[in-house]
Amino acid sequence: MPRLIASLGLAAGILASTSAWAVEISISCSALGKEYEICKQGVDAWAKRTGNTVKIVSTPNSATERLALYQQLLAAGASDIDVFQIDVVWTGILADHLMDLTAKGQADIDDHLPAMVETSRVNGKLMAMPWFADAGLLYYRQDLLDKYKRPVPQTWADLTETARMIQDGERKDGRGDFWGYVWQGRAYEGLTTNALEWVASFGGGAIVDDKGEITIENPKATEALKAAAGWVGTITPEGVLNYTEEESRGVFQAGNAAFMRNWPYAWALAQGADSTIKGKVGIAPLPKGGADGRHAGTLGGQLLAVSKYSKNADAATDLVLYLTSQQEQKRRAVEGSFNPTIVALYSDADIARANPFIGDLVDVFTNAVARPATVTGQNYNKVSTEFFNAVHQVLSKRAEPAQALNRLDRDLKRIKRDGWK
Q: The pTM is what?
């Protein structure tokens, strides 16, 4: 708490000093779900306090496409965006183009989830501030589980059986467009997060281990991909091969699926006044690969970073500190189900009322599977692209799991040949 009070005092001093020289700050905010709306409310509040103005720059919802845009802008030294919303796995990739926030952010950083702090640092320097945390979760229709007298699935085999039972039953009742399970199957970063959950849940590792050894070609990973490929066209529509988060949420929220894998942001939307499934949804950890498997949600989340090429770096840094503050993270959690990165907020009563599952998520985040971004450094994007393309081939029946993983192992070794960094 003393750190919080001190940081608010520091922020107030910065706010007072910047108001005399009003500037315009540009920030990239995702428009996924309610993100744009919630972001705009936050930046408008900061602008009102400081006398500055803020322009929100529209960027693609696809993480892969957004990273490509960022890299293009930053490589050119462009000052179009002052504050970047970045994925937790991009810090190392973009670090050379970001400001070191250690001096101004260090006082508050220890209040955040350790896993999120780790994703914010590169070579000991604080290159971004944690904004919200994410992990893959299983959404389920409680009313349909009750109707068919089935428990929440604990293994992927359980989910497959229950999804098929509910799907068959609902279709017999005339709902021909009803599916058992929807997720993110497009060839992009979202598929990396899904597939990593499958592989880890079966005990197949995390593509590359902490020592930099490539581990993806193994029987458990093969088993995981075989199981997932079996869903496509049976309990999952073939169109899932082009689904991102919003396509899968659209099907689920329209009442046309029994289960969905998605990030926590989907909860607030599912409970919205216009939601077909309001009051009918539950959340649980993703299933285990089997009796000897584990619940594995991929660690996600977003950070805020200041461009090294910003012409208003002080004001941009102040905006970052405001948006990642305890007060603002609480507002975002209550209004948009964005999970705080500040540990103390997980026991906040207002947040718990808005998000009944919030107390369970500390454990989910603590045990989440991290993508191998730290160990692979600048090469992470290449590693992820090779992985999700290989998985997509398996899901679309263009390659057998063992064949695809053997080829992936060879391709990753080629990338590693000159060292991960």
A: 0.84
